[in-house]
Specification:
The chain has one domain: Substrate Binding Domain Of Dnak, Chain:A, Domain 2 (Up-down Bundle), CATH 1.20.1270. It is an all-alpha fold. Helix 3 packs antiparallel against helix 4, helix 4 packs antiparallel against helix 5 and helix 5 packs antiparallel against helix 6. It is built from 6 helices and no strands. The protein is elongated.
């Protein structure tokens, strides 16, 4: 297993473990009166943005490694993914807090994810991390559209 594959496994495992652990937890004692479903109105958006950030971090690392080796073809991809990770991080935090600003930001982040998907698709045949990032961006854009509606 190379370093890239190890990073991918760790990222996916940490996301899956976090999501599964929180989904299976019963309400803590004394908190049964809380409407936990309403408190996590944007659960799917939080999961999608988290996956997009994790996948994007791997893609950026890959792009930077290749850029460092003189391969400039991934410069636009790295810039696009940087926009995704920054914007998805902000949206994830607002969505987890059920902020009233989620819908407005989700519309913008959805566009950013769509742009990144388009850029990553240019390289996906040659670089599996670009394919993975494009897929994560496509899913995140769908969740953003739902939240923006």
């Amino acid at each position: 297993m190379n370093r890239r594959e190890l990073i991918e496994v760790i990222a996916v495992a940490s996301l899956a473990g976090t999501t599964a652990a929180h989904a299976a937890d019963p309400p803590p004692a004394g908190h049964e009166h809380h409407d936990h479903a309403a408190m996590m109105k944007y659960h799917d958006l939080v999961v999608a943005t988290s996956h997009c950030v994790n996948t994007g971090d791997i893609c950026i690392a890959h792009c930077l490694m290749l850029l460092g080796n003189g391969e400039k073809e991934l410069a636009a991809c790295a810039k696009s993914v940087q926009d995704v990770t920054a914007s998805c991080t902000a949206l994830r935090q607002l969505a987890a807090a059920n902020s009233p600003h989620v819908a407005k930001l989700a519309a913008v982040v959805g566009d950013i994810c769509s742009d990144c998907e388009t850029e990553c698709r240019k390289h996906e045949a040659k670089h599996s991390v670009c394919h993975d990032c494009a897929e994560a961006c496509a899913q995140c854009a769908k969740e953003c559209q739902k939240a923006a509606a």
